[in-house]
Amino acid sequence: MKTDRKSYVSIGTSTPIFIPSSYSSEPIRVGVDYFTIRICGAQVAFLGSIWSKARSVLVSTQTNLHHPLLGERALRSLQQMRVVKQHVDEQLGLSVNLVALTPAVMPQITLTIDFHVDKENRIAQLGSIINKESFSAILSLAPGGIAVAKTVSALANDIIQTFIPAEEQEPVLQFTGDFNLVTGGLAPGYYAILGSRDAEHSIPSPLPAFEVKDGRLLANDQPVSGLSYVIIEVRKTSVRSRDLGIGTDWDEKLREAEDFAQSLIDDPLADYDARQSAWTKCRTLIKEAQTFLRAEPNYLRAEAELIVRATYLRCRELVTEPVPERNRVIGHGRNTAVWLPNDQADRELLGIGTDEVLERDVTAYAYDVIKARDILANWGPDDQ
Fold first, then answer.
1. CA–CA separation, 97 vs 99, rounded Å?
2. CA distances from 247 to 55, 99, 145, 178, 244 (A)
3. Angle at 148 between CA 253 and CA 34, to 5 degrees
4. Among 62, 120, 71, 60, CA closest to 94
5. What confidence category does residue 320 fall into, taking pLDDT thresholds of 50, 70 and 90?
6. Is the pLDDT of residue 326 over 70?
7. Among residues 332, 313, 222, which one has the least CA distance to residue 274?
8. Spatial separation of the C-alpha atoms in residues 366 and 369, rounded to whole Å
9. What's the pLDDT score for residue 332?
C-alpha cells in the first residue's frame, strides 16, 4: 500500500492501519475473488484554536476502480454534513457502502477520503439533502450503477468547488491511497485512518493495539479520543451467487429454462416427445444465458460457467424425472418411464464435462454460495 503521506506523522493523516476482523485476512486475489468496501465508522474531533472558526464538516469520498468500464477517473460521493461541535469527539454514525460486491479484475483501487471544514457555514442549507444520500452512489460495474455514479460525482464536485473554495479548504482529515491487488495489498478486515491538526492530540507513535467494536475505534480497549478517524471495512467472497443477478437478461433465460423443465413434472401427459421438446428449449435458453453471462462484468468467468452448469444439471434432473404416480394417466404407459436425453452434443456446446465432474462442481458451488451469504450478512444499509 502506498499513500501520498509519510507514515505515522504526528500531525496530519496517518497511513491505513490494518486491523484483522473475524473473517479470513488472506489478501484478495486478482481474477479469483470478489470484494466489497464500506465505511463502518467515523469520528471527528475539533480540538485546538485552529478550528475556532469552523462551522461544519463535510465528509466526501472518491473511488477509482481503475476498470475500463469506468475509465481512469475517481468518482466522488458526499457522505455526510455535520455542524461542528468544539472540543468534543463526535461519532458521525457513518455506515455507507463505497464499492458493491465486485470481481477483483483490476490491478489496484484508489480511495480518497476528505473531512472538509466549512468556516463560513456555506453548506448548512444543503445539509438535509446531503444527509439523505442525494449526492452519494455505490460504485459497481453494473451499467445502470455506473451512469448514476458518474452523474452523482459531477454534482458532488460542483458542490465542493462552489461552497468550499480551494483556497479555503483546510481538512481535518485528508487521505488518498492506492491498494495494489496484484501484490496482495488489499485484505479482508478493517483499515483505520487517523487525522489530527492539534499538537496536543497528535497521532501516537508507536501505535497502540487497535480494535473495532460497534463501529468505534478502540486503542488498548479504550475509545480513541482527541483524534478524527475513519474506519474502512473490506470483505471478500469466492463467489457472488446467482441471487445477485436477478433481473438480468441471463437470469431471465435461466428461469425460463427451469420453468420449461418444471412444467413436465406438473403435466400428467408428458411423454417422450414432450420431454424432448422441453429439453431442446432448455438447452437453447441455457446457451443464450451463457452468452450473456460471459459478457457480464459483475461476474468472474469461472462463476459464470458454474451458474450455467448448476442450471443445466437442475433442468436435466427435472426433464428425466419419472412422472409422479398421482399425475399418471391410464393408457399412457410411456409417461412412467425414465427418459434420458442424448446430451453429448449439448455438453460439448456448453463446455460441460462428465456427470461426476458436473455434480462435484455444482455441489462445491452451492457450498461456496452458502459461505458468501454468511460473509455478506448484515454487511451494510444497502444491497450488494
1. 6
2. 45, 20, 14, 34, 9
3. 60
4. 60
5. confident
6. no
7. 332
8. 5
9. 44
